[in-house]
């Protein structure tokens, strides 16, 4: 079959790889003229890694991944370690290491694996037409693409979602702003093999190792949405938000490059169960936009891609039927992840100060088993075990 994919992000490219491996002809259309990843890095947990392993990319993704052997929480003001533990029990339980990876490197790897000649840039979707056994994508430049089915992997602002759903849901502001980027790893900020998170006042500062001797960093601050912002103000603002925090946090702020530091207002979308309409289906953020608080957004998109390819390969009652079976295998799993992330977001970022304080208090008693149990719960239920 000929399959049209709208969106060349992680979900769209992974779907392109999976569907080509299943013997389909794939064309990927992306509205932007140049692919630029959203965010500096991603926590690619074991379920996402397994999807890439399944698609024959085991060596490539391992080469991109940072060595994250330990995890620690640190009290933001005092700099005292609240808990530190090995992630080896997690690896042994689920059968695969997680890899923090730079988004640009991951997207380049996926682009090469999908095939650059399969990806068409500068093609903004404006309409979808279904004509019997075909579906047609209509683009702003007047061009058209015809296929047997169309996959909307066009992100949280999805145009395809508006075609699939009679009443598309609205994005919900999660109540906090995230700054993220990359810096050189340094022991005066955190150990180079550890995901370290400083917490306090409903805020977070995290550094985690990625390839190339670098840290991926992020700062979370509960703030109203829509505040004015200039990149040049990043360090000044962060110094204010984290005034009085421990020296490693101040060192990190000093070393960030404001011009390459991203600022993102965090949103999600209320889960919905309808992902398909005729020969059109949603995938990734278009189907289940989530906050990053459990690190499962990209991983869930990769799961979608694998299940979509499996469904088309194993069901023979027609394209609409296969797409519905894909939807029905994925929608509850994805909804659960969105709601878990929302719950974790509220606890972490002080929506209920008493709950947040109780979480802080529990970290001083944590031996790692409770946190690992939570991560495993997010990973379990994936299509590859």
TrEMBL record:
GO terms for molecular function: FAD binding; FAD-dependent urate hydroxylase activity; urate oxidase activity. Keywords: FAD, Flavoprotein, Monooxygenase, NAD, Oxidoreductase, Purine metabolism. Pathway: Purine metabolism; urate degradation. Its EC number is 1.14.13.113. It comes from the Bacteria. It is an enzyme of class 1 (oxidoreductase). Residues 2-339 form the FAD-binding domain. InterPro entries: FAD-bd, FAD-dep_Monooxygenase_BioMet, FAD/NAD-bd_sf, HpxO. Its cofactor is FAD. The keyword Flavoprotein applies. It catalyses: urate + NADH + O2 + H(+) = 5-hydroxyisourate + NAD(+) + H2O. GO terms for biological process: purine nucleobase metabolic process; urate catabolic process. Belongs to the FAD-dependent urate hydroxylase family. This is FAD-dependent urate hydroxylase. The lineage of its organism: Bacteria, Pseudomonadati, Pseudomonadota, Betaproteobacteria, Burkholderiales.
């Amino acid at each position: 079959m000929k399959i049209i994919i709208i969106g060349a992000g992680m979900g769209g490219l992974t779907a392109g790889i999976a569907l080509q491996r299943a013997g389909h002809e794939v064309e990927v259309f992306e509205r932007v003229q140049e692919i630029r990843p959203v965010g500096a890095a991603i926590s690619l947990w074991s379920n996402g890694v397994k999807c890439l392993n399944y698609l024959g990319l085991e060596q490539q993704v391992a080469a991109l991944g940072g060595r994250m052997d330990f995890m620690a929480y640190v009290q933001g003001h005092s700099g005292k370690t609240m808990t530190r533990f090995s992630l080896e029990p997690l690896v042994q339980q689920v059968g695969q290491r997680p890899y923090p990876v730079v988004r640009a490197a991951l997207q380049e790897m996926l682009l090469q694996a999908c095939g650059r000649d399969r990806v068409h840039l500068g093609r903004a979707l404006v309409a979808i037409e279904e004509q019997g056994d075909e579906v047609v994508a209509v683009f702003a430049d007047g061009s058209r693409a015809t296929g047997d089915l169309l996959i909307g992997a066009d992100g949280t602002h999805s145009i395809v979602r508006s075609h699939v759903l009679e009443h598309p849901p609205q994005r919900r502001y999660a109540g906090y702003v995230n700054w993220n980027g990359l810096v050189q790893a340094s022991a005066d900020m955190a150990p180079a093999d550890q995901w370290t998170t400083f917490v306090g006042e409903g805020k977070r500062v995290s550094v985690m190792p990625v390839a190339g001797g670098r840290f991926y960093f992020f700062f979370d601050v509960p703030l109203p949405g829509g505040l004015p912002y200039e990149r040049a103000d990043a360090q000044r603002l962060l110094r204010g938000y984290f005034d009085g925090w421990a020296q490693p946090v101040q060192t990190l702020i000093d070393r960030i490059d404001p011009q390459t530091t991203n600022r993102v207002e965090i949103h999600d979308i209320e889960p919905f169960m309808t992902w398909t309409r005729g020969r059109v289906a949603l995938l990734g953020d278009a189907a289940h936009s989530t906050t990053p608080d459990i690190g499962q957004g990209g991983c869930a998109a990769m799961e979608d891609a694998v299940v979509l390819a499996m469904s088309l390969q194993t069901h023979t009652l027609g394209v609409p039927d296969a797409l519905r079976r894909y939807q029905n295998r994925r929608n509850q799993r994805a909804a659960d992840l969105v709601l878990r992330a929302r719950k974790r977001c509220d606890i972490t970022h002080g929506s209920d100060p008493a709950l947040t304080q109780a979480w802080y208090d529990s970290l001083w008693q944590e031996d790692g088993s409770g946190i690992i149990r939570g991560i495993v719960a997010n990973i379990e239920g994936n299509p590859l075990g």
